Amino acid sequence: MLQVVDISKKTEDITEQLFESSTNHGFLFVKGHGIPQSHIENLFKVSAEYFALDQSVKDKYPIENNIGYTSFNQEQLDARKTKDYKEAYNFGPINSTTGEIPIENHPEFFQKYNDLITKTNFYLFEVAKQLFVHLLKTLKIDKDKIPEIAKCLTGDTHTILRFLRYPQMRSLKEAENDDIRAGAHTDYGLLTILFQQEGQQGLQLNLNKEDDQDWLPIAFQPSDDISKEGAPLVVNFGDLLQFWTNGTIKSTIHRVVIPETRLKDRYSIVFFVHPQDKTSLEGWESKYIPKDEENKPQVNAYEHLLMRLNETYS
Ligand SMILES: O=C(O)CCC(=O)C(=O)O
Ligand SMILES: [Fe+2]
């Protein structure tokens, strides 16, 4: 079972949970995020309306520089498998202070939802920043260095908000056994925040790298008090946190599978948090972090993102 961590608490009160979840599962649930249930419902409504548009309308904004629409069987997150049976829309670039995007560069359909999209980005950036600082304190990074490191989440970043749709199969026979919604992969950035909906499971994580049959399903975690905030967010740590901590924090392999009852859609909304482009991948100093790994790529954060995107779309 994953930890449910309340980020509105003081770091001292959640240190153990954060250390456990970041170094073991690399996944956790985050509550205390303050995002109202009505906001999350509106977001899923807009996503469903968008994906219901005519294919020709969606095809007008094909993905470029990681922004725009991705169609079925275009991405391949796991090179050993088939391409992913999903469609997606990526919003960006996102202003890391206000959450704004240049809405005029996005499809006509989204123009009237600018406030909703901006607010979502703002909320999620706040969650990411709070969690990042809790994590730096948990790792006992030198107090003076924390503001300097946390600065990588300000200014221009390649953070992306993504709507995803994995359609139901029209018949139980339609999917082949090895068909996959999202192939096994790690995330490329700093951390990832995910909204999922009750009854639309399928996300699984692989705790034991030696055994690719060993998958732990991530259940839907309901809100403690729906009048206060929506369900806890699923958060996982990406490659960059694994690099900076020389493997102490795990960038865990995960995937999305087709459920046994194939006649079910899954919609998810994901926020991929990236630091400023030039951020180095060098290890931080802490008693919990071993000395630099030798086989680390000699690139900056953006070069690492480009490498991973090239693999996904090749
Ligand atoms: O849709 C999901 O639940 C997760 C998708 C995912 O892992 C990804 O797009 O990186
Ligand atoms: Fe992922």
Can you describe what's shown?
This protein has seven helices and twelve strands. The protein is globular, with a radius of gyration of 19 Å. Helix content is 27%, strand content 18%. It has a single domain, classed as Jelly Rolls, CATH 2.60.120. The two termini are 35 Å apart. It has 314 residues and is an alpha+beta fold. The model has no long low-confidence stretch (mean pLDDT 93). An eight-stranded mixed β-sheet has the order 1-2-10-7-12-5-4-3. It binds 2-oxoglutaric acid and fe (ii) ion (FE2). 2-oxoglutaric acid (AKG) binds next to strand 11 and strand 12.
Task: Give structural attributes.
7 helices, binds fe (ii) ion, alpha+beta, Jelly Rolls, single chain, binds 2-oxoglutaric acid, 314 residues, four-stranded antiparallel sheet, eight-stranded mixed sheet
